[in-house]
Design a protein that fits this description.
- The chain is of the alpha/beta class.
- It has helices at residues 17-31, 76-94, 115-122, 138-143, 146-163, 174-181, 208-214, 235-248, 263-269, 288-293, 314-320, 334-342, 353-363, 367-384, 387-406; strands at 3-7, 35-41, 55-58, 61-66, 102-105, 127-131, 168-171, 188-191, 220-227, 252-259, 277-279, 297-301, 325-328, 345-348.
- Strands 3-4-2-1-5-6-7-8 form an 8-stranded mixed sheet, sandwiched between helices. It has a 6-stranded parallel sheet with strand order 11-10-9-12-13-14, with helices on both faces.
- A hairpin with a 2-residue loop joins strand 3 and strand 4 (61-66).
- The longest helix is centred in the C-terminal third of the chain and has 20 residues, at 387-406.
- The relative contact order is 0.12.
């Protein structure tokens, strides 16, 4: 049985999305014949002061949790200190775990890929793979700040050295692959996206109770559910809502169920005349399926500087329940390309607001067209990005890379 080692900041029983994805990856590869070991931290994402057991066996997966101080990840200095701490602690722990056929290193904590610099000498026969959810230092560059101007080139140099120690860099889409390609590592690059935590075999039916609560007067419901942070924007969505209101009053309604450091700014931007714009509390995981199923289309945004740096995971969550998206983001980003390639929704820009409002107007009294769009969204997700499809790809790629290393 081949041995697989995973490194990621958070893991079972943590319920943050990325921890759930890595937990799924571990379970799915275990089912496909791998002996899986996980090295993570002893902290929870939502409660850094809580401590988890240092070792645990879960569904046949061996979990090793290294201690880290309860630093606040929202503070840049503490976040970077934590990254250094975690990479060092992981490397010390890896010395006692024996040899592996394949190793996957995630991108949390920040700069986690630097682990490969020390891990390669310890595991010369292992295929080491980086699954990149977030690009560093590109995220810091997108956030801005004078320190980035000084430290950015140094960080890029170190990351370039680390990338050359990998056997493969796994990205979340073509724009991210281009950014990783700029490092000229010379290693294999491939896209494997994060699947949705909730998957269905048919488009989820509209939840009537949630619909009545969130969109009491709407004939066509548009929902933004998720973080409204530094990587996101809302201006085009408000302008679209106003263009729709001018055409059909409240028939097309928008609801924001958002939290994050731009959520208050969003609320201040909504005026007294925005009758077709509403807000809802953030939903917990138990209530989320009904919330997502209340809308006809979902809203997703990404600011221009963040193209290829991150890919919003709610794009896949929307498709997985059969909901097309309205995407406000740069044209060179992954989601814009996928929308155009697979007819998965509307790419909203400064120039397309009126066209988008007209298209939504035509959908108001055409439920058959909405149903066809929703069927297509789910069909594309199941064919291209489902958990089964993606984890099969992981199994195939890891075995191929491990075989090459063993030669």
């Amino acid at each position: 049985m081949p041995r697989l080692l995973l490194f990621y900041h958070f893991f079972h029983p943590d319920d943050v999305v990325s921890a759930r994805l890595y937990s799924d990856l571990a379970e799915e590869q275990q089912r496909r014949g791998w002996e899986v070991t996980v090295v993570t931290s002893n902290r929870l994402w939502r409660d850094p002061h809580a401590e988890l057991p240092r070792q645990e066996s879960w569904n046949g997966i061996q979990i090793h949790r290294v201690y880290r101080p309860p630093w606040d990840q929202a503070r840049p200095i503490e976040r970077l200190a934590n990254s250094g701490w975690m990479v060092g602690a992981w490397l010390r722990r890896a010395r006692d775990l024996g040899s592996f056929d394949a190793i996957v290193i995630g991108s949390d904590p920040a700069f986690a890929a630097l682990l490969a610099l020390g891990l390669r000498p310890l595991q010369p026969r292992a295929a080491i793979v980086h699954w990149c959810f977030d690009l560093y230092p590109e995220i810091l560059t997108a956030e801005g700040g004078r320190a980035v101007e000084v430290l950015g080139p140094i960080a890029r140099g170190l990351m370039g050295l680390a990338y050359r120690r990998f056997d493969a860099l796994i990205d979340l889409g073509p724009r991210m692959r281009e950014r990783l390609g700029d490092y000229r590592s010379g290693v294999h690059q491939e896209t494997m996206v994060p699947w949705a935590l909730t998957e269905t075999e048919a488009p989820a039916p509209v939840d009537a109770t949630a619909r009545a609560t969130l969109f009491p007067r709407a004939k066509l419901a548009l929902l933004y559910s998720g973080t409204m942070g530094r990587a996101h924007d809302f201006d085009l969505f408000l302008r679209l809502a106003r263009a729709c209101r001018a055409r059909s009053g409240d028939a097309v309604s928008v609801c924001f169920a958002a939290r994050g450091n731009r959520a208050d700014e969003l609320r201040r931007a909504v005026g007294p005349d925005d009758h077709n714009v509403a807000f809802a509390p953030f939903a917990d995981e138990a209530a989320l399926p009904a919330r997502l199923a209340a809308a006809d289309l979902h809203l997703i945004s990404l600011r221009a500087d963040w193209a290829g740096v991150v890919v919003p995971s709610k794009f896949f969550a929307s498709l997985a329940i059969g909901r097309p998206v309205i995407y406000a983001g740069p044209a060179d980003s992954e989601i814009a390309q996928w929308i155009a390639e697979h007819d998965l929704g509307i790419h909203l820009t400064e120039e397309t607001i009126d066209d988008a409002a007209g298209k939504l107007q035509r959908l108001i009294d055409n439920p058959a067209a909405i149903a066809r769009w929703q069927d297509n969204a789910l069909a594309v997700y199941r064919r291209e990005w489902s958990k089964r499809v993606t984890c099969d790809r992981w199994d195939t790629r890891l075995r191929e890379l491990a075989s090459l290393r063993a030669q």
